[in-house]
Design brief:
Layout lengths: L26 H19 L11 H11 L5 E2 L22 E2 L2 H18 L12 H17 L4 H26 L7 H7 L5
Antiparallel strand pairs: 1-2
The structure holds zinc ion.
Amino acid sequence: MDATGPSEPTGRAGPPAATFAPPPPSRYESQKRRDWNTFLQYLRTHQPPVSLPQCGGAHVIEFLRYLDRFGKTKVHEPGCAHFGRPESPDPPCPCPLNQAWGSLDALVGRLRAAHDERRTSGEVENPFADRAVGVYLREVKERQGKARGVAYRKRWKRKRVASTAAGSSAGADKRGGSSSSSTAAGDSRSSSPAAS
Ligand SMILES: [Zn+2]
């Protein structure tokens, strides 16, 4: 995780030589830096201005909502004829354009990491790790999933149901196989010698 040694920018003492340029930061790193600057800018221009230590989950959610005005993802509302359909409508509908859930989720991940990097001794809570932010993202995911006919939630549910069903059927199988086991069926079965 901490193998960033040689790529650390250390050329503050003098101007970098034209022939030796440090390797450019990765796409993720530069994106993270851009996002962080955007966020700081948002806090600075906030009414009233918010300093980083004052910033909490509510501010993060406000920021995510603010970003929606630059969004490009059509999110159909329940009343729209295109609601629940993945294809984009041909005569455009008046539903709002939002940030896609995936973009917001990735953005929060980058900002959370950026905040962690700047934290000195853990005296400030990471607002991006706030529970409310997680709840907000989940709501966005569900709303967009429904609007586009992608049932994220159902898929999870089905998985969980399938696994519990498998577990219970295995239990039933065990119960049917051994007659005198009361509590630890598997254990008693393996330790007991041949039953007549
Ligand atoms: Zn629509």
